[in-house]
Amino acid sequence: MAELSENQEKYKSAQINNALGVFLLIFGIIVIIAVPFSDNFVDKMANLVAGLIVTGIGGGMTWTARRKIKRLKQKDDFIP
User: Fold this and answer.
1) End-to-end CA distance of the chain
2) Stated pTM of the model
3) pLDDT at res. 19
4) Which contacts qualify for 53-57: CB closer than 8 Å, 24 or more apart?
5) Residues 72 and 7: beta-carbon distance below 8 Å
6) CA-based Rg of the chain, rounded to a whole angstrom?
7) 3 state SS of 38
8) pLDDT score at 36
9) What does the domain layout of the chain look like in residue ranges?
């Protein structure tokens, strides 16, 4: 099996983080959409806070991964 260069490993890691970030972002949005279907105020606030936290983490992961992918593609010696 061929060894990957350092840039290829970083690229692969950024792709994985991007996919995981998108998953968390979508899951957080689903939790936020579920807020009106909760029974009482405490459940609504718990779902809202949890959804916002998960959405923020997913958005941050996606944003940083896409920045890293873009930066790696701009390098001269990049081969995916």
Assistant:
1) 16
2) 0.84
3) 97
4) 53/28, 54/24, 54/27, 54/28, 55/24, 55/25, 55/28, 55/29, 55/31, 56/28, 57/21, 57/24, 57/28
5) yes
6) 18
7) coil
8) 95
9) 7-73
Q: How many residues does the chain have?
A: 80
3-class DSSP state of 28: helix
**With DSSP H G I counted as helix, E B as strand and the rest as coil, what are the percentages for the chain, rounded to 5?**
80, 0, 20
Query: 10-60, pLDDT tens digit by residue?
Result: 889 999 999 999 999 999 999 999 999 999 999 999 999 999 999 999 999
Q: Using one digit for the tens of pLDDT, what is the confidence trace for 63-72?
A: 999 999 999 8
Q: How far apart are CA 64 and CA 80, in angstroms?
A: 18
The token duo for 35 is: 């807020």
Neighbours of 48 (CB within 10 A): 15
